Amino acid sequence: MKKLFFTTAWSVCFALMTSCGGNISSLLEGTKHPADQADSYAKAVEILKEKVDTTKFKIFAMRFNEREELSNDLSHISLDMVNSDNYAFRQAYYMDGRVGKMNEYSSGVNVVNYENIKGISLAKIDPAVIGRQIEEAKQLIPEGHTFKSISVYQIDEVLPKNSSLLNRGKEIGSQKVNFKICFTEDGKETETSGGQVTHLYYESNIIVNPDGSIAPEEE
Asked: Most distant CA pair in the chain: distance in Å?
């Protein structure tokens, strides 16, 4: 398999004692759900099965999100859904059982129609397969670099666009799956300047093919 040489570099900064984005101690609180482990996705799917009435709603996008950058802690699942009245919305479902506010979905150029959307089946999501894909992606990390986290694992149904020109070459109703893996270069994980520590890392987008195999997206 091709190594992850085609990646995007990112950074996240911390003051020497306090996170510039919030209290760093938040990373240490609560139950952890490692975002690279199949068991975490199994729990997430069970939460969705309990909380989401799929007889009334069709899911057309799903994102398993890490809590904070490089935490590798699966925090919540964001769903885009539509009901039979063609009301589309986005809602977050947290690993501790909480359910977020229902927000209106901004369709943009997408056509969101309940009758035409196939929907993502919760029953067909296999956490063991997700775990295997992530482990395979770890093997692509170049020598001299260390795995840090899975920032997001996402499943999207390909929706039709408002313009027929934008639908050319697209398999409407199919599903696109990808996830993002983060890693650092050994010995170059941080930089310190002016009382701030900057954590340096790379993020690579991994494409899941229809047969379940994976491949890094090339920039």
From this structure: 57
Distance CA 98, CA 77 (A): 11
**Residue 58: partners with Cβ closer than 8 Å, 6 or more residues away:** 81, 82, 83, 114, 117, 118, 119
Compute the distance between CA of residue 207 and CA of residue 34 in angstroms, rounded to an integer: 21
Q: Is residue 3 part of a domain?
A: no
**Are 158 and 173 contacting, i.e. CB atoms less than 8 angstroms apart?**
yes
Contact predicate 81/58, CB 8 Å: yes
With respect to residue 37, please indicate whether it lies within any of the assigned structural domains: yes
For 112-151, how does the pLDDT look when each residue is reduced to its tens digit (9 = 90+)? Answer: 999 999 999 999 999 999 999 999 999 999 999 999 999 9
Q: What is the pTM of this model?
A: 0.87
What distances in angstroms separate CA 9 from CA 63, 77, 86, 119, 201, one per listed residue? 22, 25, 39, 34, 6
- Please state the domain count of the chain: 1
Query: Domain residues for 28?
Result: 8-216
**Token representation of residue 123:** 């029953």
In a domain, 81, yes or no: yes
